[in-house]
Amino acid sequence: MVAQRVRTVEISGIRRMFEAAPPNSVNLGLGEPDFEPPAEVVEAMCAAVRDGMNHYGPSAGLVALRDKVAERYRDRDRRTTRENVIITGSGSEALMVTALALYDPGSEVLVPNPGFVLYGPDARLVGATPVPYSLTPRRRYWPDFEELERLVTPRTRAIVVNSPSNPTGGLFPSGTVDRIVDFADRHHLTIVSDEVYDEIVYDGPFASFWGRTDRVVIVNSFSKTLAMTGWRIGFLVAPRALAADLNKMHYHIMACPPTPAQVAVLAGLANGHTAIRAMVAEFAARRDLVVRGLRRIPGVAVVPPAGAFYAFPSFSWPRSSQEVAEALLKRGVITTPGDAFGSLGAGHLRLSFAASRANLERGLDILRAYATEEATA
Ligand SMILES: Cc1ncc(COP(=O)(O)O)c(C=O)c1O
Q1: pLDDT above 80 for 16
Q2: From the CA of 238, how far away is ligand 1's center (Å)?
Q3: Is 234 a pocket residue for ligand 1 (Cβ < 6 Å)?
Q4: What is the spatial distance between Cα 237 and Cα 41, in angstroms, rounded to a whole number?
């Protein structure tokens, strides 16, 4: 007999759907950059492995890397030091560590709807209840504060925020960040801010939650910025006492983050800026291409994504997002049904622009042809 909690979560069925795609399909379903890590980072990884950096390291991560991350966060709060930073084995692990450290059985946690797929399940796995709050295109995917006030109860422990957002591409302006901080402070909530797309921003500036309140945990990752999703390396930034508690949970999950990947990331943070800038510039060009293309398709509307690498168009056809995604799959383009990210993702598709411009054009052509069929059906 397995524990009850196993039944509270499911593995997403989306992958299985992708496997049914015809050969040569255009893949607009990817949740990771279609780039390789910067060359100097790859070199540093190979050298680290060759030079014997293949052993356990400190649980909270290599001091040099924690110092480097702290330095980067000092523009948000001058007092940031390595004591605030825990290197993790990915943003996903950082999210689970946060759930373990913050939520009790019976706690409620405000989570975005639509939002990244792990927030709700992580809460459930520790016995807490996720309470979805709405993000709608009408409000440019910014929270509705009146709704937040209605959803909060004495059991609410935290609010999870994600700007820039997967799947919506929404980006909170500084004023919205301040209002969320004020809301959380008034209700004694901790803000769990998932900032994994903080460097992939088109209509900035990006506004971090770090440095605005003492009740915050920043979840971040090197996966997207350094195009190293398979290396599994991320980090947490939190007030010192909380960071020590997060580290205790992290130690019990994975003892320490991977040593060679940390050495390689250090090289990336020192020298990878040009490659990161080039990747973000390419994403920006693709964002424009996708928004222009979607605006020419009847029955489709889109709020231009301000960050991350996803567009989240809505469609007006009387079909579920699963049905539309399946119809597109048969025609040779892989998309993600919007309701995979929560009930308010119904009537939407997520299109990733981690695909070449040529493939994005092909994908948009297929979507346009399908829209024409729907219009004449
Ligand atoms: C919003 C968001 N948070 C966290 C993650 C987790 O990233 P990783 O576990 O690769 O660091 C992802 C990955 O898709 C994401 O989109």
Answers
A1: no
A2: 18
A3: yes
A4: 23
Say which DSSP state 36 is in. P
Q: Ligand 1 centroid to 166 CA: how many Å? A: 8
With a CB cutoff of 8 Å and minimum separation 6, the contacts of 377 are none
Element (H, E) at 39: helix 39-50
Q: Which pTM does this prediction carry?
A: 0.97
| Structure confidence at residue 21 (pLDDT) | 84
What is the rounded average pLDDT of the residues 188-210? 97
| Strand-strand pairing, 300-301 and 333-334 | unpaired
Strand 336-337, strand 349-352: pairing: antiparallel
Query: How sure is the predictor about 19, in pLDDT bands with cuts at 50, 70 and 90?
Result: confident
Beta bridge partners of 161: 193
Beta bridge partners of 315: 300
User: What are the tens digits of pLDDT across the range 80-101?
Assistant: 999 999 999 999 999 999 999 9
Buried b (16+ CB within 10 A) or exposed e, 154-179: eebbbbbbbbbbbbbbbbbbeebbeb
Tokens of residue 168, six digits: 């919506």
Pocket test for ligand 1, best of 160, 196, 199 (most atoms within 8 A of CB): 196
For 284, counting Cβ atoms within 10 Å of its Cβ (0-12 exposed, 13-18 middle, 19+ buried), the class is: middle
> So what's the pLDDT on residue 273?
85
Average pLDDT across the chain, whole number: 95
Domains for the chain: give ranges and CATH numbers: 4-37+274-376 (3.90.1150.10), 53-271 (3.40.640.10)
- In the structure encoding, which two tokens stand for residue 330, read together? 């048969």
Distances (CA, A) of 196 to 78, 140, 157, 218, 221: 21, 20, 22, 9, 5
Q: How far is the CA of 259 from the centre of ligand 1 (A)?
A: 20
Which of the four pLDDT bands, split at 50, 70 and 90, describes residue 13? low
Tens digits of residue pLDDT in 228-261: 999 999 999 999 999 999 999 999 999 999 999 9
Whether residue 20 is predicted with pLDDT greater than 80 in this model: the reply is no
Block residue for tokens 């971090």: 208
Q: Confirm or reject: Cβ of 98 under 6 Å from ligand 1.
A: no
User: Comparing C-alpha atoms, which of 313, 303, 282 is closest to residue 171?
Assistant: 303
Residue 106 to residue 102: CA distance in whole angstroms: 12
Distance 155 CA to ligand 1 centre (A): 27
